[in-house]
Amino acid sequence: MKFRLENASVFKKMVGLVKDIVTDVNLVFDDRGMNMMSLDSSHVSLVEIKMFAGGFDEYECEVPVTLRVNIALMDKIMGLAGKDNSMTLLYVHSDSIAQFVFENAAGDRQTEFGLKLLNIKSNILSIPEMEYNVVVITSSSEFKKKIDDLFKFSDTAIILAEKDEMHFALDGDIGNCKFTLKKNDNTDIEINDPVSASFALRYLKNFANASVLCDRVTIRLIKGQPMRASYEMTNKKMGNDNDKLGTIAFYLAPKLASSLRAAWDKHADSHCCVCGAEPRTCWCGEDQIWDVVDQWMETADEASTMPSNEDNAEVASFSSVMS
């Protein structure tokens, strides 16, 4: 397997973003490109990366391979790439080393690093297809500014989408605040059904840092499910219509009122009756506790519109809300 990027900066920025969310990841390569999907340690957020074979300056992968790496160490390796350096990643099937090569534009300076791969088994994740109630496409820098401002005053944001508007609000001990995005030439808002949910701002803050990769962000919401924030990555060096390198998407489970979380904890010891997944890791959509989750939703609607903080709410795990 081999890929080459004339501009290593996009991959470098991408790795830098991911290291703040996940630890050990699987980089899966096949003839279509590279994929990565990983949960954070608390199973509250998930990162999904897709990089298309046609977006690389060079890409070869005759046999599908999976490279398991520590993302923090990989970030340090990417730090070896200088400004305007190219990047090449090489891997020989069945080897235990992945070779990183960085080269300057003149071709007279080269840095190599052989990364030892991890030999740890992990579950393969998949995300069920969903029809989102709300889709918002807006400026990624504006989204980042709103999240950064809210984070100064609270650890929880209430996101409400209704009537062609998206509201970001908080209600804490020191007061309340609300930012509103309205549909205009710079923001496209499509709402099929109003959605209101509370989310942990420390995760949203990490997601919003992806504004360095793309000037637009697409936010998707669905009632009682994780939100999705996605960014398109481009390979500017290619200079043609095929410069789309891939997509990085972040998923975040909403906060649940403590009473709902207690109900989930009570039923969290059962494995999925279809895929056999460990508790809180099921993504097949058939977990045997969904009848309990469905009962929550009637009260969750009311709870999600109320101010939430660490004393009266907790972040739900993915498997407690994905169906």
Q: Could you characterize what this model shows?
A:
- The chain is an alpha+beta fold and about 325 residues long.
- Among the domains are: about 1-115, DNA Polymerase III, subunit A, domain 2 (DNA Polymerase III, Chain A, domain 2), CATH 3.10.150.10; about 135-220, DNA Polymerase III, Chain A, domain 2 (Roll).
- It is built from 6 helices and 20 strands.
- A 9-stranded antiparallel sheet has the order 6-2-3-4-18-17-16-10-14. It has a 5-stranded antiparallel sheet with strand order 5-1-7-8-9, with no helix packed on it. Strands 13-12-11-15 form a 4-stranded antiparallel sheet.
- Helix 1 runs antiparallel to helix 2 (about 70-80) and helix 3 (about 140-150) runs antiparallel to helix 4.
- The chain is elongated and about 55 Å long.
- The model is unreliable at about 260-265, about 270-275 and about 280-315 (pLDDT under 50).
How is this structure best summarized?
This protein has 323 residues and is an alpha+beta fold.
